Amino acid sequence: MDKRWFYPWRNAAQRQTLVISLCAFFTAGLLLGLVGIILLIFARGGGYFWPEDIYEFGLPIDNKPEVRVFGEFQGSQGLASLGDKSARYWLVYSHSNPPYKRRALVAAHRVQNADIARHAARVLLHDGRTFLAKPVFLNKHDERGRVLDKLPAYQQQVQRLTDQIETIRDIHLGPLHRKISTLTLKDSQTNSGELLAGKRAFERWQSKVIQLEATRGQYTLTLEFADTNTITVPLNQLKQLVYPGQLNQVEKLWLTLGNIWQFLSQPPQQANTAGGIFPALFGTVLMVFLMTLIVTPFGVLAAVYLSEYAPRNAVTTAIRVAVANMAGVPSIVYGVFGLGFFIYGIGGQLDEWLFGDSLPAPTLGTPGLFWASLTMALLTLPVVIVATEEGLRNVPAEIKAGSYALGATKAETMWHTVLPMASPGIMTGVILAIARAAGEVAPLMLVGAVKFAPNLPVDSEFPFLHLERQFMHLGVLIYDGAFHSQTQTSGASMMFAACLLLLLVVFILNIIAVVLRNKLRKRYQKET
Amino acid sequence: MLTLFERETLNLATLNDEQTAIRVEQLNLAFDKKSVLSEISMRIPANRIVALIGQSGCGKSTLISCFNRMNDFYPQCRYEGKIIIDGRNINHRNENVAQLRARVGMVFQKPNPFPMSIFDNICYGLRLQGVTQRRQLDEAVEQALKDAALWNEVKDRLFDPASVLSGGQQQRLVIARALALKPEILLLDEPTSALDPLTTLHIEELMAQLKKRCTIVIVTHNMQQAARVSDYTAFLHQGRLIEYSDSDTLFTTPRKKQTEDYITGRYG
After folding, report:
1. Are the beta carbons of B115 and A525 separated by less than 8 Å?
2. What is the pLDDT of residues B217-236, one digit of tens each?
3. What are the extents of the domains in chain A?
4. Domain B12-263 falls in which CATH fold?
5. B112 and A417: CB-CB below 8 Å?
């Protein structure tokens, strides 16, 4: 046998080429995976906002051989374009029986026969539900079957009625209600005349509201499903009506931008499967912000002590090793610690001291924003300490000596010279902490993040920032959506969109921190 | 030779306390158990330039650091004996070291400007002393920079970062920074070893002018420099003060064999 067969890469240059090729291969694989993840999330998350075309199909439903439905595509199995006979498409369709939204796998050949339904619309209701149907006529009072052209005018009229109702509620009913409750509480005879008058006024305004609501309820839109069953929707429940088949690409893009804005600015609906994610976005950013405020001083002071003041002995070394190991503790352990120590321990004790009257109902001893921020600060503390120590080590000894030689004490040297010069290192730690904290979900679910919070942690009520409130978090929303997606048609798209947003949030927070760090680095860069 | 500022030579043996800036008595210093300085006794005359020479590791940098207690940063460093400045023993443990360092300025081998503007570099010590009034700071900065012969070069860019200056300018900036505190004593630890010959000349001229307002102790490896700029020279060898006299005598007619060997380049 030819000996050379065993040593095909005898040449040193060739061997090196092999090594480099292998490295490049694995790096390429890594990059491909990364790009794949990002593309998937962008495609699925971005697709959530794009108005897809609506098709009309015949499907076997509820033991009937063929029922006509309106539906839209949502991904595929197999490659129909390459002639794959077994390829199928995921289809989300509307049917006249509730729930209006269903999901099915449809063979590719049937899809190819399907037609775009130009007159079918995507109907979005104010409560977050959507369905696909063809608007047929408008109704007002007893007059049925008006033409659809009048829709904008009718919507204006309905809006005017809604405004009237809201005004009465805000200006008359609200104050009257408060007045009546205070009078009832006082419970004295002298007030009875006043009380009676108040109640009478309240009833008068209420009947006015009921009358207005009845008038408003007479404006309706009748829509037809593909199987010719109809549904009638009061116009005040209708939020949006889109005909994807009649839009060109620019209009679709415009609509997409509008949808993105809605997504960012509206609260979620229908158990986090529809609507927007504003409270979750707000909660995530606020939690990360608070965490940064807590972790930065703690981490920096701890690092300064460890590297500048602590005696160089076995204990300090042990602490250093322990800190480094803390970074590797699973995050759920921090969650349990936060729940056990911060909430039940500290929070429970504070309740006993400060809010003893309201026990056993806890005031501070429940999961909330502050405890969550504190737990996340603890979780990210090792990262900040390690990075800050690294930054402190990089400050040249001559600079420190120069400061001492000018009569500065150790603390003054730290404050005026060493910490500013270590600030890029500190920023690096904070960046890593932010990236970690924004992405954590598991500990948050134990210490304050919930699937649905009725109020934002910030509002116009004193003291404006409510640290004890529970809050919503993008990560928890994704987790929730992912579970919904296993049993329901909706939720999955929302989950991908929330993923995309979480990525963007982490990305933006990082960019801000990196820009800040580079600015500091430029300022304190030592030229040699 | 700079003859312009030369003064009458004092007899080191008969210096009285008024003529003395630093009096060292029986100074012993050790790192861990390794003795670095043994039984150093010397008087450093006021408003003169004193050079410390000797081969590497002989303890001259350690000795100069004793004068503002920079050795305190080595926890393994132990010392005994007295160093008297202004009638006070600075080695006493109740001595306010930060105040001492404000009175005894020090310049290091490598220029070490802080990463701030030229102006802020010079204000650093003053601000620590509690000077905050802008007008006072402005005046002090101008005076210090003029004293360090740097004013004309930087007066138009006081608020540029100090890192834009050249090495020699940086070293003069560091000297100006120390001078802003109006120190009685200026310690220079090989101030020109990182600089080119022309810049070195600048610094040497500066030293000759500065001795009007303060005492200068300089550590140098450069024999010519010691002979050029210093009024007195001390030769250290293995932690002991071998010979200490006025520079002319030491470099022309050394009394000790070891000194002669060193200055003629037989070792070191």
Report:
1. yes
2. 999 988 888 888 899 999 99
3. 46-141+221-265, 142-217, 278-524
4. Rossmann fold (3.40.50)
5. no
Asked if B112 and A396 come within 8 Å (Cβ–Cβ), the reply is yes
The ipTM estimated for the assembled molecules is: 0.87
Whether residues B115 and A405 touch (CB distance < 8 A) is answered with no
Q: Which of B99, B106, B163 sits opposite A405 (nearest CB)?
A: B106
pTM > 0.80: no
Average pLDDT over residues A164-171: 83
Both tokens assigned to A484: 């919904």
- Indicate the SS3 state at residue A230: strand
CATH numeric code, A278-524:
1.10.3720.10
A406 and B110 within 8 Å at the Cβ level: the answer is: no
Neighboring chain B residues of A409 at a CB cutoff of 8 Å:
98
- Say if strands A449-450 and A471-472 run parallel, antiparallel, or are unpaired: parallel
- Distance from the B17 Cα atom to the nearest Cα atom in chain A, whole angstroms: 25
The pLDDT tens digits of the residues spanning A426-450 come to 888 988 898 888 888 889 988 888 8
- Distances in Å between the Cα of B188 and the Cα atoms of A479, B71, B108, B207 are 66, 15, 6, 10
A399 interfaces chain B, CB cutoff of 8 Å: yes
Q: Does A394 touch chain B (CB under 8 A)?
A: no
Map tokens 């990089």 to a residue: A394
A239: left (phi over 0), alpha (psi -120 to 50) or beta: alpha
User: What angle (nearest 5°) sits at the alpha carbon of residue A88, between those of residues A83 and A90?
Assistant: 145
β-sheet bridge partners, residue A107 = A88
CA torsion sign for B249, B252, B258, B263 is positive
Two tokens at A145?
Answer: 């079957």
CB contact under 8 A, A406 and B102: yes
pLDDT tens for B148-164 read: 888 888 889 989 888 88
- Inter-chain CB proximity A406 and B181 less than 8 Å: yes
Compare CB distances from A398 to B108, B124, B161 and report the shortest one's residue.
B108
Lowest mean pLDDT among A55-59, A369-373, B108-112, B189-193: A55-59
